TrEMBL record, chain A:
<dbReference type="GO" id="GO:0032040">
    <property type="term" value="C:small-subunit processome"/>
</dbReference>
<dbReference type="InterPro" id="IPR006709">
    <property type="entry name" value="SSU_processome_Utp14"/>
</dbReference>
<feature type="compositionally biased region" description="Basic and acidic residues">
    <location>
        <begin position="47"/>
        <end position="61"/>
    </location>
</feature>
<feature type="coiled-coil region">
    <location>
        <begin position="496"/>
        <end position="558"/>
    </location>
</feature>
<feature type="region of interest" description="Disordered">
    <location>
        <begin position="122"/>
        <end position="156"/>
    </location>
</feature>
<protein>
    <submittedName>
        <fullName>Small-subunit processome</fullName>
    </submittedName>
</protein>
<feature type="compositionally biased region" description="Basic and acidic residues">
    <location>
        <begin position="78"/>
        <end position="87"/>
    </location>
</feature>
<feature type="compositionally biased region" description="Basic and acidic residues">
    <location>
        <begin position="745"/>
        <end position="756"/>
    </location>
</feature>
<feature type="compositionally biased region" description="Acidic residues">
    <location>
        <begin position="125"/>
        <end position="154"/>
    </location>
</feature>
From TrEMBL, chain B:
<feature type="repeat" description="WD">
    <location>
        <begin position="268"/>
        <end position="309"/>
    </location>
</feature>
<keyword id="KW-0539">Nucleus</keyword>
<dbReference type="InterPro" id="IPR012952">
    <property type="entry name" value="BING4_C_dom"/>
</dbReference>
<dbReference type="InterPro" id="IPR019775">
    <property type="entry name" value="WD40_repeat_CS"/>
</dbReference>
<dbReference type="GO" id="GO:0030686">
    <property type="term" value="C:90S preribosome"/>
</dbReference>
<dbReference type="GO" id="GO:0000462">
    <property type="term" value="P:maturation of SSU-rRNA from tricistronic rRNA transcript (SSU-rRNA, 5.8S rRNA, LSU-rRNA)"/>
</dbReference>
<dbReference type="InterPro" id="IPR036322">
    <property type="entry name" value="WD40_repeat_dom_sf"/>
</dbReference>
<dbReference type="Pfam" id="PF00400">
    <property type="entry name" value="WD40"/>
</dbReference>
<dbReference type="InterPro" id="IPR040315">
    <property type="entry name" value="WDR46/Utp7"/>
</dbReference>
């Protein structure tokens, strides 16, 4: 079966076409032999059977082709005109009709190879049985196996088997059979070894002899094959009046063709001319080659599809080479047409210089001068050349080498530098920096050892300082990590706490050290005194006392267990006792000192009375301990209460004064600092005050009513204060002044201060308005210490606060804010219908819980916690939607963007000239496509690098 | 410039770049870009980023063109800048600058308010008792002077030196450079403070009634009338960055207004007492307020938080912030200037000035010049404050040296570039951004809009087609004064009367016909005949 398939029509056609030269040769030679000499070239090997067989086969093929598709064979006629002439002689063997075919259908003729024939025979017998079934399949398989078959054929040919097997079925005349006719068609025949080839060729040619064939045929047929009973045929189809046009079912495919008409002529002898003509007419050209009928054309739809696919592949290939350039153009920011326009030729400076011809008079003059002085470019060049010429060849070479080497070195250095500059590692940088510093230091040591030592010392000091200040802070990597992550594990927290504590301790030590130093300095001033040691001890004692005091004050602010009432009372008692002891001790000490030195004591007393305030190591209280610190506190509290209203106007301060009594104190103290810094008051002290005095009358006139009230009240207040003025002065709370104040003339200020203390009311009434301020200011600049607060300084502000005390501004504001917050909150929709779902009538109990049907709150509201002003106490930010601005907003994110951020980022750079430099502006607004007017825009060129895709 | 060149940035420009990088939400580095799958989008975003980066770099580089540096007073040793008087300054500055220190003694027409044009070239002054004058103060050239003989509360230049608005006793008037009254704005009643938004062409006024009114001076429309509900207002300032108006009220609050919202955008409690003066920084970041409670407070209006607070010895009556951020405070006869006041707590003022024997009414820094103008009870005076004005001017924005032609051009351009009042919002960069309202809300709004549209479609107001009412006679009669009676008028009246009679008769029918008995008359009551 497989072999049968090999010889299908299409493949043979195609082969035939491609190998016309071979076939024609064969045709030419074949008929010659048969017609003229009628003797094969190698008669020994060619049997009569052979000749006949081949001929028969030929004719059969011819016929079959005709049967299947006449039209197709004619289609090829044009292409094979040349062959026609040659084929004429072969056409004489057309006298072989159906009956003959039937008779000899099972005869197989072969060349010399007997074994093969045997095999073939076996196969054929098998095939005979299955033939009918397979017929239909064959047709369908024709197309599919085209290409395979070609290859197979060649293989077979290479095996040098020239077999011509002819099979037929006589019964139904089905000529749709595939023949094997490979060796003939194959171009590879030439490759077959010469002997066999020659044999085969001879046998083949021999087989073409017709006359012999016929006689032998008859004999054989009579001998070997029992006669077959043919069906009696009266008509081409069954006779019936209804069945005129149709044929016998078995003959459905059979058309009436030329053979049917002229078959009878074949037997006759006198019509050779006619026969020949008919044959030529019928064969349509190429005689001698097997011409398979062309397969039926595919349905146009499928054919089109195949065409399209093929075309698509081709076009696809074509188009891919455009891809890169199209991509490039698509991604380009701007496209300028015509593309790749040649740039206007730019002449280099050298060219211009060489082309230069002096034209104007000035140029000429300069030129002539240059020529005269001999500094023209040409001359210089000549001079250089001359110089070079003096040198020997070796020297020049050496020079060039040297130059090259230098250049090379420089280049390497550059590359190295670039590589190093690229390194991003911080540690590397650090190490490098250190190395560099070291190197510098070394170099410095070589140059100037003294300076180097100083530098070294400075570095050491810096390092020590660093260690002191930073080591125990939480700045190390570990500490940071621990702070970040170790919030939850106990050990980490403890470690950090420990570290902090350590840091605190160290810091304290540093401070103490500092104070010691100060004291040392102090003592060194008085170095003529002998009892340095005693002094130091005393100093220490005072320090300790101060520390005790500090601890006490710290304790006072304790909370929790120590904050409880009974604990406090107990502590107070304790404190009272200790304080008594301290006082005694101090007195003792003082007495001792008084007995020795008078002048010094004053200072010492001052020092001794230092107490630290609160937690702040920088703040100290000076003055006697006659009055307890708690009393101070009370004073402060009172004051703070009175000025509270004023303070609370600042945005961040709390409003509730009862609950947070401690906070105002803190605020107060902070405010004290801020007051101290208040520059309004500082500047007044010198100039403005004096000027204001002069203009005081005018100002008072201009003042508002409120101001008048203020001044009145103030006067009263001042009267009161003047009575206890001295007392207050004693209790002054002092702090170390800011550095700035040092610039003031200390002596003057001191003098003023004394005046102030002695006669606080001595100033003229005119200046009374600013009096309190002045008091404050003058006290400000007392040597190193400044008044934190003179209670009188409060008076004005206090009074101003009082003046506005009635305006319940804050409460009103808060109420308003609350109302707005409530108003803006999302409103729940109550969809409950009254009476719906409940019973009515007598004796019905009302359900205790009201069932509420709530719908989703209407959009547009905002919860209190989500408001922008949720954390701003004294600010109301409107959360309403501004509908008028809606038209300037985009409701959706525009197309290419995926997120709002992306889109808004693209908007943020403004396009106008107002916000951009000219260059950027022009770049931004350049259109994507620019065409030059009046130029031809050529179609796109494929760049050269895509040529390889062409093939 | 190639990309490589862009990438090579020297240290100086690198420092300046952040100033020009526009803030944006989120990050868009190479990491984020990689995540974006859409190639085209990534391409666009990359391009956008590149452009914005390049723009910033170029802008930083272009600073090289700003040749002038602002100079400040600097002292040596024990000397303090606040001790330097104008007299001392005058002795030491160049002759051209000495002309900037001057006093106009105008004691008769009461405390003066003043205003500079946007380019700082011209000045308009308004005396409380009705004296208004405009002049080119640099050349000491008077342009116009008028005596209005009624109270003048404030004066304000409009978009250029051709027009100025004056808040008078009852209305606001607009005068041209010749002092000719051009408009009377009847809707602005008893105005205390005037302001002008140059990019929107809006004249803003607020007065005793507490109504904030916006009038478009290019079209004449009254854009918005907003009721503050907080009583008389005497402190107003505009935020030049977003054109929001800041009003200071009697209850110590400062409110921020936009013409698009009937309620204040922000309301903040600043003082315990009435707010006396408000000033907003040139960059729109900071605000200074002074109250009758004797405090001066500095605010960050991006966060609405208090930055610093100072006590003033008497309540500051006027505040002004210069282009370079110097804060001027006028209190009593004094003016104190503070440098870097918004950044750190100041220990001492930058400069001091005292206008003895007067009460400061109004102070204004002159744009593009180191000059502070004071309006006080004795006239006006001008003092030098070194380092107050922007030294590098953008002549396309505001040009003190502009010619007439340039002014005309600028006027047309500014009109073409006029911004609509709807664009006044707290965030001036909102334009084109995505609406962040919830989807539900947007849906609801759209639905409402559609509904209203549908409702309006059906309704069509009937045209008032009263035929004959506008006949030429009637129009004539309507137009003429009613108390003047001339011959023609009588004639016309007569004819009209006649016509009316004829019409009546036509409707009722002829009287003679009426007398004729009708067919069914006989059945009617006989009494009628009588």
């Amino acid at each position: 079966m497989g072999k049968k398939k090999l010889g299908n029509s299409k493949s043979k056609n195609s082969i035939k076409k491609s190998k016309t030269s071979f076939t024609t040769n064969y045709k030419n030679s074949g008929p010659k032999n048969s017609s003229k000499s009628k003797q094969p070239k190698n008669p020994n090997k060619i049997s009569g059977k052979d000749i006949f067989e081949i001929d028969q086969e030929e004719t059969k093929q011819e016929r079959r082709r005709r049967n299947i598709d006449e039209i197709e064979s004619y289609e090829y006629a044009g292409a094979e005109k040349i062959e026609k002439k040659d084929d004429e002689e072969i056409d004489s063997d057309e006298a072989f009709n159906d009956s003959d075919e039937e008779r000899f259908e099972h005869f197989i003729f072969r060349g010399s190879n007997q074994k093969d024939i045997k095999k073939q025979l076996d196969k054929e017998i098998d095939l005979d049985e299955t033939e009918e079934d397979d017929d239909d399949n064959e047709e369908s398989e024709l197309d599919e196996d085209d290409e395979e078959d070609q290859e197979d054929e060649r293989e077979v040919a290479r095996k040098s088997i020239a077999r011509f097997v002819w099979l037929d079925e006589s019964d139904n005349d089905e000529s749709e059979m595939d023949e094997e006719f490979k060796a003939l068609m194959d171009n590879d025949v030439q490759e077959i070894d010469d002997e066999t080839k020659a044999d085969k060729l001879a046998s083949f040619i021999g087989s073409l002899d017709k006359k012999r064939k016929r006689t032998i045929d008859d004999e054989i047929s009579s001998l070997e094959k029992p006669k077959k009973q043919l069906k009696e045929r009266t008509e081409a189809y069954e006779e019936s009046e209804y069945n005129l046009a149709t044929r016998e079912s078995s003959n459905i495919r059979k058309k009436i063709d030329l053979h049917d008409l002229i078959g009878s002529i074949q037997e006759e002898t006198g019509f050779s001319g006619l026969k020949q003509k008919l044959a030529s007419l019928e064969s349509g050209g190429n005689k001698g080659t097997y011409k398979e009928p062309l397969s039926a054309p595919l349905p146009p739809r499928i054919q089109d599809r195949l065409n399209r696919q093929a075309a698509y592949e081709k076009v696809n290939k074509d188009i891919t080479k455009w891809e890169p350039i199209v991509k490039q153009n698509r991604e380009a920011e701007h496209l300028k047409f015509p593309m790749n326009a040649p740039l206007p030729h730019k002449q280099t400076n050298n060219v211009l210089a060489s082309m230069f011809q002096p034209v104007t008079e000035l140029e000429k003059e300069i030129d002539s001068m240059l020529v005269e002085s001999g500094v023209k470019e040409k001359n210089l060049q000549q001079y250089e050349e001359l110089q070079m010429s003096k040198l020997s060849v070796e020297e020049v070479e050496k020079r060039v080498k040297e130059l090259r080497k230098m250049r090379e070195l420089a280049f390497r250095e550059e590359i190295k530098g670039r590589r190093i500059a690229k390194i991003k590692s911080k540690t590397y940088r650090k190490i490098r920096k250190k190395e560099k510093n070291k190197l510098d230091l070394k170099q410095l040591a070589e140059l100037d050892p003294k300076l180097a030592r100083e530098e070294q010392l400075r570095l050491e000091r810096a390092r020590a300082q660093e260690r002191m200040t930073l080591k125990h802070k939480n700045t190390s990597k570990w500490a940071k990590q621990a702070l970040k992550h170790g919030r939850h594990d106990l050990e980490g927290r403890q470690a950090i706490a420990e570290q902090l504590q350590r840091h605190e301790e160290l810091k304290r030590k540093i401070h103490d050290l500092g104070s010691d130093e100060e004291l040392d300095d102090f003592s060194s001033e008085n170095s003529d005194e002998k009892d340095d040691d005693i002094d130091a001890i005393k100093e220490k004692a005072f320090d300790e006392l101060a520390q005790l005091e500090r601890k006490e004050t710290e304790n006072e602010e304790m909370e929790g267990l120590f904050g409880m009432k009974f604990m406090r009372i107990a502590m107070d008692k304790e404190k009272y006792r200790t304080r008594g002891m301290i006082d005694d001790f101090i007195e003792d000490l003082e007495n001792e000192e008084n007995s020795t030195k008078d002048e010094k004591t004053k200072k010492e007393v001052k020092k001794s009375t230092i107490t630290h305030v609160g937690n702040n190591p920088g703040r100290m209280i000076f003055g006697g301990f006659e009055k307890s610190t708690s009393e101070h506190k009370f004073d402060i509290k009172k004051l703070s209460k009175s000025i509270f209203d004023l303070k609370s106007s600042s945005a961040e301060e709390p409003k509730d004064d009862d609950n947070k009594l401690t906070e105002p104190i803190n605020n107060y103290s902070s405010e004290i600092n801020f007051e101290e810094e208040n520059p309004w008051l500082q500047t007044d002290s010198t100039k403005i005050v004096s000027s204001s005095k002069k203009n005081n009358k005018g100002i008072i006139k201009e003042n508002n009513k409120s101001d008048k009230i203020v001044s009145k009240l103030k006067k009263q207040k001042q009267g009161d204060q003047s009575q206890n003025g001295i007392e207050i002065d004693v209790d002054k709370i002092l702090t170390i002044g800011s550095v700035q104040n040092k610039s003031m003339n200390e002596n003057d200020q001191r003098g003023k201060e004394i005046k102030e203390i002695n006669s606080p009311t001595s100033r003229s009434d005119k200046a009374s308005k600013f009096k309190s301020m002045e008091d404050y200011d003058t006290f400000d600049v007392e040597t190193n210490f400044v008044h934190v607060k003179n209670p009188t300084a409060f008076s004005q502000r206090e009074l101003v606060a009082r003046a506005f005390a009635n305006d319940n501004v804050i409460k009103e504001f808060e109420a308003e804010k609350q109302a707005i917050i409530e108003d803006d909150e999302p409103k729940e929709q109550d969809l409950t219908l009254p009476g719906w779902g409940s019973w009515s009538g007598k004796g019905v109990k009302k359900p205790k819980k009201k069932k509420l049907v709530l719908a989703k709150p209407l959009p547009g509201g905002i919860e209190a916690s989500k408001r922008k002003d949720a954390k701003l106490q004294y600010v109301i930010i409107n959360e309403k939607r501004i509908k008028k601005a809606k038209k300037y907003l985009s409701t959706n994110i525009p197309h290419p963007f995926e997120t709002r951020e992306q889109y808004e980022r693209s908007l943020r750079t403004p396009l106008g000239t107002e916000w951009n430099t000219q260059e950027v502006f022009q770049k931004i607004v350049t259109p994507r496509i620019i065409t030059k007017m009046g130029t031809v825009i050529d179609p796109l060129n494929v760049p050269f690098h895509t040529n390889d895709l062409d093939e | 410039m190639t990309e490589e060149e862009v990438n090579i940035i020297d240290k100086d420009t690198a420092k300046k770049i952040p100033k020009y990088v526009r803030p944006a939400e989120g990050k868009l580095g190479s990491k984020q870009l990689k995540k974006i799958k859409n190639k085209k989008l990534r391409g666009t975003l990359e391009r956008v980023e590149k452009i914005s980066k390049e723009a910033a770099i170029k802008a930083a580089r272009s600073e090289i063109l700003l040749t002038e540096d602002p100079g400040y007073l600097e002292t040596e040793g024990i000397e303090k800048t606040f001790n330097i008087t104008q007299k001392q300054l005058k002795e030491n500055v160049d002759e051209d600058s000495t002309k900037k220190i001057f006093d106009l003694k105008l004691p008769t027409f009461g405390p003066y308010s003043l205003d500079y044009t946007r380019n700082g070239r011209h000045m308009v002054i308004g005396g409380r008792k009705g004296h208004v004058a405009s002049f080119d103060w640099m050349e000491n050239k008077l342009i116009s002077e008028i005596h209005l003989k009624e109270t003048v509360r404030d004066v304000k230049w409009l978009h250029n030196e051709l027009f100025f608005a004056v808040a008078q006793k009852k209305y606001v008037f607009i005068y041209d450079h010749n002092g000719l009254e051009v408009h009377r704005l009847k809707k602005h009643i008893e105005v205390n403070k005037l302001d002008f938004l140059p990019y929107h062409f809006l004249l803003v006024s607020v007065g005793n009634a507490g109504w904030l009114k916006y009038q478009d001076t290019s079209t004449g429309q009254l854009v918005a009338e907003l009721r503050t509900k907080l009583g008389s207002c005497d402190a107003m300032a505009q935020n030049p960055w977003n054109a929001i108006m800041h009003l200071g009220h009697y209850n110590g609050t400062v409110t921020l207004w936009s013409p698009n919202m009937s309620t204040p955008l922000v309301k903040m409690l600043t003082h315990k007492g009435p707010v006396k003066a408000v000033a907003v920084d040139h960059t729109g970041k900071y605000m200074a307020t002074s109250g009758l409670d004797g405090q001066l407070k500095l605010w960050d209006i991006r966060t609405y938080k208090l930055l610093q607070q100072y006590y003033t010895r008497s309540p500051a009556s006027s505040l002004s912030i210069s282009q370079l951020g110097l804060l001027g405070v006028g209190w009593g006869p004094h003016v104190t200037i503070w440098k870097d006041a918004f950044l750190t707590k100041q220990q001492s003022p930058y400069m001091n000035h005292i206008q003895s024997g007067t009460q400061i009414q109004d102070i204004h820094f002159c744009p593009f010049d180191d000059v502070l103008g004071l309006g006080h009870s004795n006239g006006i005076s001008s003092i030098i404050i070194p380092g107050s004005g922007e030294p590098n001017l953008d002549s396309l924005e505001a040009n003190p040296y502009q010619s007439r032609k340039q002014r005309q051009e600028a006027e047309v351009h500014s009109l073409l570039d006029k911004i609509q009042p709807e664009m006044i919002l707290l965030d001036s960069t909102f334009l084109g951004k995505v609406d962040r309202a919830s989807k539900d809300l947007l849906f609801m709004e759209r639905k409402e809009e559609e509904e209203t549209q549908r409702d309006n479609e059906g309704k069509r107001e009937p045209k008032n087609k009263a035929r004959g009412k506008n006949s030429s006679w009637k129009r004539y009669l309507r137009k003429k004064q009613k108390n003047v009676i001339d011959e023609r008028k009588l004639k016309i009246q007569q004819r009209i009367e006649q016509e009316r009679e004829a019409r009546r008769k036509r409707i009722i029918g002829n009287e003679e016909d009426k007398d004729r008995p009708k067919a069914l008359e006989r059945f009617s009551n006989k009494k009628r005949k009588l």
